[in-house]
Design a protein that fits this description.
Helix content: over 70%
Largest sheet: 2 strands, antiparallel
Number of helices: 14
Structural class: mainly alpha
Distance between the termini: 23 Å
Shape: globular
Radius of gyration: 21 Å
């Protein structure tokens, strides 16, 4: 079998693992449900002409379709989106330690959340105003990084990194200032929990937009595999091949920040996925982005769904922030990947 055939088989295998994991995780929670009842509820929800959100369809239906299913789908979308954007960011800045939050997205989101919780900024947006404020902060800081990096010359990876570090530090300082002087203990606790990430707020009315933005973004980046491969070579080499990477870099940054902004809005801050998943998948696919992107996306979804299941089941009647679970898993795995073999960005040696 050819290398492309093996990669397609691996993708289909991972997709099957994800589907099986989603079904198994429907049985995890404070209320115990048998898998026969879960299968019947899933089948009825898929094939019934009645909307899954319609009331009075039974307690098993409500637990499966109103509580656990949107949560698991949000976890899968979050994992896939973070992994895909992590792949793109590592190509843009040509740095294997880059992740989706490297250009100030996390600090911008935390500033937006802190301003919303402690100062009431955006309260007119409704019950989800904290997520909306975090989304605006994440996207706004990313655009500002792009603007600063393009002042007095076109942006390159070094200028983008420096601009991201500077603005990230500024946003973190303002957030810390707000938290330090806030006389609101419950508000500070809310900020801390939100910064650790959670899928508890998943609802069907948000899932359509989240899933659509994530899926379309991954598909778009997958079609850009050749350009992403050229970014690893550098701008000078790409120009000799007839490609000006500066415009592509700006476009990818905006689209990546848009995806991350939606995920931050829905799930809060969750780190490490966009860093470790691309590294792990490269060991099997190499540096080619046409193979790397879909496999990393599915792997990220599998990791996040499993982490959410652990967050809900490790301590009875208590939910651990999923960001803590991912960090506890990700840190030793990343160290193992580094120690396991001598690693060169995009290749095994």
């Amino acid at each position: 079998m050819s290398a492309d055939g093996r990669r397609r088989m691996l993708f289909l295998l991972l997709l099957a693992v994800l589907i099986a994991e989603l079904f198994l995780c429907l049985g995890i929670g404070s209320a115990h449900l048998g898998y026969d009842a879960i299968y019947a509820a899933v089948r009825e929800g898929i094939f019934s002409p009645v909307s899954v959100t319609a009331p009075r369809q039974g307690p098993v239906h409500d637990i499966v379709w109103m509580l656990r299913m949107p949560r698991l789908l949000l976890a899968a979308c979050t994992g896939a989106g973070l992994a895909a954007v992590g792949v793109v960011m590592q190509a843009i800045v040509r740095n294997p330690l880059a992740d989706p939050y490297i250009l100030g997205v996390s600090s911008g989101a935390s500033l937006g959340a802190a301003a919303a919780i402690l100062l009431g900024v955006g309260a007119w947006l409704g019950t989800n105003f904290v997520g909306m404020a975090a989304f605006c902060g994440a996207l706004g800081v990313s655009l500002l990084v792009l603007l600063v990096a393009n002042l007095r010359g076109a942006a390159d990876p070094v200028r983008l990194l420096l601009a991201g570090m500077a603005l990230s530090a500024a946003c973190s300082a303002v957030s810390s200032f707000l938290i330090y002087f806030a006389n609101d203990r419950s508000g500070v606790q809310s900020i801390v929990f939100w910064l650790m990430g959670s899928f508890a707020g998943a609802r069907w009315d948000m899932m359509a937009a989240i899933a659509l933005v994530t899926l379309l973004g991954i598909l778009f980046f997958w079609t850009q595999g050749t350009v992403l491969d050229l970014m690893l070579l550098g701008d000078a080499e790409a120009v000799t091949l007839g490609r000006d990477l500066k415009r592509y870099r700006a476009l990818y940054l905006v689209l990546g920040s848009l995806i991350i902004g939606f995920l931050v809005y829905a799930a809060g801050m969750i780190g490490f996925v966009g860093l470790i998943v691309p590294h792990a998948v490269r060991f099997f696919t190499g540096a080619g982005h046409r193979a790397l992107l879909p496999l990393a996306s599915v792997t990220g979804a599998i990791l996040m769904v499993g982490a959410d299941a652990l967050a809900r089941s490790l301590i009875p009647r208590t939910e651990i922030p999923v960001g803590l679970i991912v960090s506890l898993i990700g840190a030793p795995v990343f160290v193992y990947l580094i120690v396991r073999r001598r690693y060169s960005f995009g290749r095994r040696e």
